[in-house]
Design goal:
With about 675 residues, the protein is an alpha+beta fold. About 55% of the residues lie in helices and about 5% in strands. The strands form three sheets. Strands 3-4-5-9-6 form a five-stranded mixed β-sheet. A two-stranded antiparallel ribbon has the order 1-2. It has a two-stranded antiparallel sheet with strand order 7-8. The protein is globular. Bound molecules: zinc ion.
């Protein structure tokens, strides 16, 4: 029996919402006071500056994260009110710390001779954060920098609002049911409900994602698809049904010009250079080379896939002039005709008990790590389970909370989060990390075992991959333990890496057992699953490369020329497009990832992380997927090191060389 009495026990249900914000406020004020006195009174060395800063950050994380988590998974009006009262306090605190130039100077002056490499990296990371937020600039430039920052956040908000308004302003009322032929029941129900809400007969179609996707994929009426397509790709632009009403053209141009100026103020040639300063990629050329290499290798296969689609549409459906609004529709028909594999048909093979047991067996065989259920710990909902993570020496490495099912008042999607990070305390005790794994799978009927689709299983493996990265860390400093300080374009490595196991026959044997017959996934279904995995993968690759190249080159080459955005995009499409774009296409006007999200000159990271994870996984393919040496190398070189070294160095430690794109191309069925 394990001793569990010394484990941390975060409280979720007893948070006093009425006093929470004022206590947070007091904590933050006290922290700011402490920071000032640390900087003023303490010697500027690791023990007297960084260590106490970690204490202060740790106190905030431990106080705030259970509340933050409950707001996401057991929301209520009172919780929302409390949460919203806290947000401005936290952002004011972040700004006060981030703009504290005395603190920056103090950290910068820490003597580093006697520090280990992790400590040196943490100091370098801190200094870089300060410098990129403009703290080190001379007064006049700093003023300009601050006004650029303020204007950029206004503009990104405007971009988002235009896009939202344009999306909502468009509706299409259908009165003849024949027009909607092919649409799935859930899409029809939503469209009907919208019309009923407005008291009009018929159905209302919108540009919201579920409706747009349903029409593009399933609507038999070609003209309907064209109408919705045109409205969708002209949102927030000078074209289409709402031409110039919510036009993002000026917003985009001003943002690009300000981003360029911001980058130059900080000493970079362009915004792309600034973006990669905090990423694993070493130069802008690295990124361009990486993307073009993938493009050149994928293009021939994508052309073949596209030709196959054209042939299919011509022979089976008499359609000889394939247009952009036909692609998803005929692709779906073709996929069904070739593979006829539905996710629902796989469900009975993945009951919860077998899946979880098999998943934990995979973890055990790879890393020697065991997850054991804890019964005597508070959780926020009866569905939630908490596990202790035990290593080969039976030491507790961390706690993992798993919350699998959708329910009212729980945010959608799947994600991992940290409730606390690993660190070594003053008395040499270890504070263990705690992670949460949240999904929104369909909840089973009462008294029935939950079952999962293969897509669900991929999601579960993905999120557990993130959690293990956070939980298995051996770094002693909070600023670099677990997922902290891992470069942005490498943070998806452990999660995407872990997904690979879901496609292995040996793993599927472990995690499947038919709810009625008890048999594991049969070969026939397995073969279909593998074949459907790579359907049109090169076409998908080209689409992602178009977004990535456009985003990156835009931020690398922008120079205030008229029509430059459209010209750069047109140039890239010459290499990426399989079908000429419609002249009215303004999809850049709704590219929120880069104009209203955090992905500017960083969209390539999706592909970058896929290359890393595929390449890392290929060593397992070479040496045996359950080879314990390979598993332990991955544990020691990648999972345990967190942000204590550069992701590139950690990768080379594991793979013995820099990353290569070959494995991703092979896993996508693009090269053999
Ligand atoms: Zn992820």
């Amino acid at each position: 029996m394990m001793h569990t009495k010394n484990l941390p026990r975060p409280q979720f249900l007893n948070i006093n919402l009425s006093t929470f914000p004022s206590t947070l406020d007091a904590l933050l004020k006290e922290n700011l006071k402490q920071i000032n006195s640390i900087v003023k009174d303490n010697p500027h060395d690791w023990a007297h500056l960084i260590a106490p800063l970690d204490d202060l950050n740790d106190a905030i994380e431990k106080y705030w994260s259970p509340m933050n988590h409950c707001h996401a998974v057991i929301n209520s009006p009172a919780r929302r009110e409390c949460y919203q009262a806290c947000l401005p306090k936290l952002s004011a605190y972040d700004a006060a710390v981030g703009q504290n130039s005395d603190l920056y100077q103090a950290i910068k002056s820490i003597p580093q001779d006697s520090l280990d490499s992790t400590q040196q990296k943490i100091i370098a990371d801190h200094c870089q954060d300060f410098e990129l937020s403009g703290v080190a600039l001379p007064a006049d430039k700093k003023k300009r920098f601050e006004s650029i920052q303020a204007r950029l956040s206004e503009l990104s908000n405007q971009f988002d609002n235009h896009l939202l308004d344009a999306t909502q302003a468009f509706t299409l009322t259908i009165t003849d049911e024949k027009t909607l032929q092919g649409l799935p029941a859930h899409a029809l129900e939503t469209a009907k409900a919208l019309a009923t809400e407005k008291n009009i007969p018929g159905w209302i179609l919108t540009l919201e994602m579920p409706c747009y996707l349903a029409v593009m994929t399933y609507a038999d009426d070609r003209h309907l698809r064209e109408t919705i397509y045109q409205a969708y790709v002209t949102r927030a632009s000078d074209q289409g049904p709402q031409a110039k009403q919510f036009d993002n053209t000026d917003v985009i141009n001003e943002m690009l010009s300000l981003r360029q100026e911001k980058a130059q103020l900080l000493g970079f040639a362009n915004y792309a250079e600034l973006s990669i300063a905090t990423k694993m990629a070493e130069s802008t050329n690295d990124v361009i080379h990486f993307l073009t290499d993938l493009l050149e290798k994928s293009r021939p296969q994508a052309e073949k896939e596209f030709q196959a689609l054209k042939d299919y549409a011509a022979t089976m459906h008499d359609l000889t002039d394939l247009k952009p609004w036909d692609i998803a529709y005929y692709s779906d028909k073709m996929c069904q005709a070739h593979y006829a594999l539905s996710q629902e048909a796989l469900r009975p093979y993945f009951p919860e008990d077998t899946l979880m047991e098999g998943l934990f067996t995979v973890v055990k065989r790879l890393y020697g790590i065991q997850l054991t259920l804890m019964s005597d710990i508070e959780v926020w909902h009866p569905d939630v389970k908490c596990y202790q993570v035990l290593d080969e020496q039976k030491q507790c490495r961390g706690l993992l909370y798993v919350d699998l099912f959708a329910r009212p008042n729980k945010r959608g999607g799947a994600w991992m989060d940290s409730l606390q990070g690993r660190r070594r305390l003053k008395d040499n005790q270890i504070q263990i990390p705690i992670a949460t794994l949240t999904c929104n799978f369909a909840k089973p009927q009462a008294n029935k075992m939950a079952t999962f689709t293969h897509d669900d299983v991929l999601t579960l493996f993905h999120e557990l991959g993130h959690c293990l990265h956070h939980l298995l860390t051996q770094v002693d400093y909070l600023s670099a333990s677990g997922i902290n300080a891992v470069e942005w374009d490498a943070v998806e490595l452990p999660s995407q890496f872990f997904e690979n196991f879901c496609w292995e026959k040996e793993v599927l044997q472990l995690i499947t057992r038919h709810v009625e017959t008890g048999e594991s996934l049969p070969d026939a279904l397995y073969n279909k699953l593998i074949a459907s995995k790579n359907f049109q993968s090169a076409m998908g690759m080209l689409r992602q490369l178009e977004f990535s190249l456009f985003d990156f080159m835009l931020h690398q080459k922008y120079s205030n020329q008229p029509n430059q955005v459209a010209n750069i995009l047109a140039d890239i499409r010459k290499k990426t497009a399989l079908l000429p774009a419609m002249p009215y296409n303004r999809s850049q006007h709704s590219f929120a990832h880069i104009f209203a999200g955090g992905y500017a000159a960083g969209y390539y990271s999706y592909k970058w992380a896929e290359v890393l994870s595929s390449d890392a996984y290929s060593r397992f393919e070479e040496e045996g997927i359950f080879n314990p040496i390979t598993g332990h190398d991955f544990l020691h070189c990648i999972l345990e090191v967190g942000g204590s070294k550069k992701a590139q160095d950690a990768f080379i430690d594991f793979r013995g060389r820099k990353p290569k794109i070959d494995a991703l191309l092979r896993h996508s069925g693009i090269i053999l």
